[in-house]
Amino acid sequence: xxxxxxxxxxQLVRLALDAASMRHRLIAGNIxxxxxxxxxxRRLDFERQLAGARxxxxxxxxxxxxxRALSAVRPTLAYDNVGPVxxxxxxxxxxxxxxxxxxxxxxxxxxxxxxxxxxxLAAAISGGGx
Length: 130
What we know:
The chain is mainly alpha-helical. It has four helices and two strands; from the N terminus they run αβααβα.
């Protein structure tokens, strides 16, 4: 089992992967409903909540508090109301596709990092291939 800063890092990666997966589903839903009358595009608010836990995460003397701070971070749904005041705009498919591409890259980067960590642990367990 992980301990200390490594445990917090693993917890943060799991939380970020969960948020990226949720964001992917929301964006896909936004695109699927682009022509639905009255549909309001949704987004996932994760980064703002994570910023609230950032100070605790950056303080290396509070590793135990870091885990509790991350446990309090919960991605939440919000509605996009972009456009001039008083005028709500629907789904902008090109914008949603760009967000989907960015989210896909983010998810791939997280899984690549996680796979590298697992490979390092596997190499350590097997004695480096001896």
